[in-house]
C-alpha cells in the first residue's frame, strides 16, 4: 500500500465499491422495469415483484455488510486507542471523546497522540479536524 496522508488515506475496493454496487444498481433498475412491464400480465406480475423484492434485499445486504464491518472496526479501534492512551499516560481516554473522534486519532503518532486527544476532547473537534491536525501521519494498513 502507498504511503498514507490526510489526502490519501481513504480506501476504496473497486470490486466492492464500484463493480458490486454498479451491478446491484443495474439489476435493481432492470427488475423495476421488468415489474413495470409485467403490470398487465398477471402470470408475470408475481415473479417480477419477487425479483424486485429480492434485489432490494441484496442492496440492503451489501449495505449492511459494509456498515457492520465498519462498526466492528470502530469498536476495535476504540479499544486499541484506549490501550495506547493508557500505556502512554496511565489513564484511559477522556470519556467525552466520541467514537469517530477516536477513529480519527488512530492516525496520530505516539508523540502527538496524547496532546491531540486532550485537545479533541476539550474543543469537541470533528474527526476531519483531528486528522488535519496531525503533523506526522501514522499509517493504518489494516483498515477495512
Task: Fill in the keyword field for this structure.
single chain, 144 residues, mainly alpha
How big a fraction of the residues is strand? Answer: under 5%
Terminal residue distance: 13 Å
Radius of gyration equals: 22 Å
Helix content: 55-70%
The overall pLDDT average reads 90
> How would you characterize the largest beta sheet?
none
Which structural class best describes the helix and strand composition? Answer: mainly alpha
Count of alpha/pi helices: 5
Q: How many strand segments?
A: 0
Following the backbone from N to C, one meets helices and strands in this order, namely: HHHHH
Shape: elongated
- Spans of at least 5 consecutive residues with low confidence: none
Describe the structure in your own words.
It is built from five helices and no strands. The chain is an all-alpha fold and 144 residues long. Helix content is 69%, strand content 0%. Helix 1 packs antiparallel against helix 2, helix 2 crosses helix 3 and helix 3 packs parallel to helix 5. It starts with 13 loop residues before the first helix and ends in an 11-residue tail after the last helix. The radius of gyration is 22 Å and the shape is elongated. The longest helix has 48 residues.
Précis, in short:
The chain is mostly helical and 144 residues long. The protein has helices spanning 14-37, 42-89, 99-105, 110-123, 127-133.
Topology:
Elements (H helix, E strand, L loop, with lengths): L13 H24 L4 H48 L9 H7 L4 H14 L3 H7 L11
Helix pairs in contact: 1-2, 2-3, 3-5
Amino acid at each position: 500500500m502507498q504511503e498514507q496522508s490526510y489526502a490519501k488515506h481513504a480506501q476504496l475496493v473497486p470490486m466492492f465499491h464500484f463493480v458490486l454496487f454498479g451491478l446491484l444498481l443495474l439489476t435493481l433498475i432492470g427488475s423495476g422495469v421488468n415489474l413495470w412491464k409485467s403490470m398487465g400480465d398477471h402470470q408475470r406480475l408475481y415473479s417480477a415483484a419477487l425479483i424486485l423484492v429480492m434485489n432490494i434485499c441484496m442492496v440492503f445486504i451489501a449495505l449492511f455488510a459494509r456498515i457492520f464491518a465498519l462498526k466492528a472496526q470502530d469498536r476495535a479501534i476504540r479499544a486499541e486507542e484506549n490501550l495506547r492512551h493508557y500505556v502512554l499516560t496511565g489513564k484511559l481516554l477522556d470519556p467525552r471523546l466520541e467514537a469517530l473522534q477516536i477513529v480519527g486519532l488512530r492516525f496520530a503518532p505516539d508523540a502527538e497522540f496524547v496532546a491531540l486527544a486532550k485537545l479533541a476532547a476539550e474543543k469537541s473537534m470533528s474527526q476531519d479536524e483531528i486528522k488535519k491536525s496531525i503533523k506526522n501521519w501514522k499509517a493504518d494498513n489494516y483498515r477495512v
